[in-house]
Amino acid sequence: MTDVFGAEFLDRLHSVGAVKNPASFEALRTQGFPNRRVEAWRYTDLAGQLAQTLTPSGLRINQEQSGLFGPNPAVQTVEGDALSLMNAAVGGEGFLFEVPEGARLKPVFARFGPMAANALVNATNRITIGAGAQAVLVERWGQTDESWMNSDTTIDVAEGGHLRRIILVEDGGAGTQTHRTFTTLGENARYDALVVTLGGGLHRIEQHADLTKPGCHAGLSAIVLKRGEEHSDFVTNVRHLAEDTTSDQQVRTVVDDRATAIFQGGIKVAQDSQRIEGDQLSRALMLSDRAQAFTKPELEIFADDVKCSHGATVGDLDQEALFYMRARGVEEAAARALLVLAFAREPFEALDLPEAIETMLDGKVQEWLGVAGRFEEMDL
Amino acid sequence: MLEIKGLKVKLEEEDKQILKGVDLKIEPGTVHAIMGPNGSGKSTLSYVLSGKDGYVVTDGEATLEGADLLDMDPEDRAAAGLFLAFQYPVEIPGVGNMTFLRTAVNAQRKSRGEVELTAGEFLKEVREKAKSLQIDAEMLKRPVNVGFSGGEKKRNEILQMAMLAPKMCILDETDSGLDVDAMKLVAEGVNALRSEGRSFLVITHYQRLLDYIVPDFVHVLSDGKIVKSGDKSLALAVEKTGYAEFEAA
Q1: Which of B75, B99, B143 lies closest to A331 in CB terms?
Q2: Facing residues of A356 across strands?
């Protein structure tokens, strides 16, 4: 039984005594990791990750505010998913974030990592938003080179609750991050997620959302900035399981050098789910001839009364705008930076974020562009 | 100020000669107008002088205060004192009008070795200048030219010109798309900037704009060459007879 993909990687984990949940481990050892013949993994090859010798270690939480965060000892398995099985097999404890009914929180910031080199961190996290509660959660996942962070987060947003969640995934070097979120939304509940991924060797971020009751909404957006040999795979899967539900996906990708970015955007509408609106727009900026951007919309619609839109564009910066700015004296690099910054900001609008968070994210993008602090906002 | 000698220009994409030997000398403090029919090369001249891609200079030269313009990047030409008011100002979604303008002002100052303006200094100046052009705070806050009417776009060009204080201003069909009131307002803005050390090249189809921005010299450009030069009365003659009379032989 050595022929499954990643068998040697798993045997190494087993030999260092990392397995805490034998049933999950055996299931994974039998099915193996997904290779590129699996449609959902067509563009992402885990061979490099699975060739590594990694040391399992726990999740380090640097919480910037106290109170609502706690450890989550419960390990759930998401059926069939190999990376979730790995998480369960090595017993990835994670965080618990619970917002009580009716609470209205100030933004909560939490950092995960950095950690030691060659570490394998598995985490199972749980977020619950009580009925009518409102929260803004900013998660920053960062790490050192040559490590792998793998997490599953389950979210429940109860009736009328609203979670706005920023997931900032940033790596200095060749790190791997694979994170999956599974959200269930109640009546009139809202989940607005914005994934921002910067740097890293390989990032695969999945956002799954089940719209189970009328009036709920899921916004699953991403800003992807990649250069060098970096690789990003952003996957969404929205399931409209109830009538009168809406979803929106805004993905903005900037790829330079030889970087690769993939967006696999799923919208599924069940047979009895009428009066559905689902929008999806993926725009990619290619800053180099050798960069690659793939967009794969996957729409499965079984109901009649449905308004779904999807669009994908790939292009270069607007040459007319570049010339206009240069003709005013703005040097080419700054003109390009201003245009990229404007492009990357597009998903902000739908989120209506507190100004401090927008400023922080702007700062991250400016840092990525090498123009930190250059374009400060002015109050008129 | 600006000196153009035997300038010949063709399009990069197709082998088509647009300018066929343009000579023009503009002294400091003077206003020159170039008139000409569609396709005569008016806009090409303004784009070549400001450094837009897509044109190839096959012969001739253009200098600004003795410096070779054609060898410079667009941003260096701007820092050297050249300004082009666009016929179609470009909309730039997501880039704030003020962020853009301050970046431009400070990039030019930095390039010339001058101290950059602080946010406070910049805003004070921009508010004063915006007021005389009837540009309100709402317009200043919006992204560059996005959702601006034709008149607002042209006034925004003049605001940029006022803030950047160039030496040589080229106005490319600034009157296009403007009603009389908007044109008067823009012309007033331009006239307020006329000074001994600043020159203008006003490119236009129609004589009408020249009632408000009165030129010292008028040139007729036809088929890539200046075929006639004179004083402001030449503009009136063109208006009366049309361009046919001035077709290049």
Answers
A1: B75
A2: none
Q: Among B247, B225, B227, B228, which Cα is nearest to B59's?
A: B225
Phi first, then psi: give them for residue A24, nearest 5 degrees.
-65, -40
Residue B148 is inside which H or E element, if any?
Answer: none
Q: Which of A93, A95, A103 minimizes the C-alpha distance to A129?
A: A103
Structure pTM? 0.90
Per-residue pLDDT band for B34 (boundaries 50, 70, 90) equals: very high
Q: What is the pLDDT of residue B80?
A: 94
Q: Which two tokens stand for residue A327?
A: 């003709």
Cis peptide upstream of residue A73 (ω within 30 degrees of 0): no
List C-alpha distances in Å: A268 to A179, A276, A277, B240: 21, 10, 11, 68
Angle A339-A248-A303 from CA coordinates, rounded to 5°: 145
Query: Predicted confidence band at B179 (pLDDT cuts at 50, 70, 90)?
Result: confident
Nearest CA in chain B to A336: B95
Q: How far is A377 from chain B (nearest CA, A)?
A: 7
Q: Do A327 and B123 touch (CB under 8 A)?
A: no
* Cβ <8 Å between B90 and A378: no
Task: Examine residue A2 and state whether it is found in any structural domain, yes or no.
Answer: no
Q: Which residue ranges of chain A lie beneath pLDDT 50?
A: none
Q: Give residue A65's pLDDT.
A: 55
Q: Please report the ipTM that was assigned to this predicted complex.
A: 0.95
β-strand partners of A263: A234, A295
Number of folded domains that form chain A: 2
What DSSP element (H or E) covers B12? none
Is residue B77 within 8 Å of residue B67, measured between CB atoms? no
Residues of B in contact with A340 (CB under 8 A): none
Burial class (CB in 10 A: 0-12, 13-18, 19+), B138: exposed
When CB atoms are compared, the residue of A320, A321, A334 closest to B103 is A334
Tokens for A331? 């040097």
Tell which CATH classification among 3.40.50.300, 3.30.565.10, 3.40.390.10, 3.30.1490.20 matches the domain B2-92+167-246.
3.40.50.300
DSSP letter at A105 equals: P
Strands A276-286 and A69-72: unpaired
**Domain assignment of residue A360, given as a range:** 318-380
Q: Are residues A310 and A352 in the same domain?
A: no
Please report the pLDDT score of residue A75 as a whole number: 61
CB A34 within 8 Å of CB A40: yes
Q: Where are the domains of chain B?
A: 2-92+167-246
- Both A77 and A103 in one domain: the answer is yes
Indicate whether A205 and A242 sit together in one domain.
yes
Q: Would the CB atoms of A341 and B94 count as touching at under 8 Å? A: yes
Give yes or no for a contact between B172 and B200, defined as CB atoms under 8 angstroms apart: no
User: What are the pLDDT digits (tens) for B113-170?
Assistant: 999 999 999 999 999 999 888 888 888 989 999 999 888 999 999 999 999 999 999 9
Six-digit token pair at B177?
Answer: 């798309």
Is residue A17 packed enough to be buried (19+ CB in 10 Å), middle (13-18) or exposed (0-12)?
exposed
Average pLDDT value for chain B: 91
- Considering only residues A63 and B66, tell me which one the structure prediction assigns the higher pLDDT: B66
B126's tokens: 């921009």
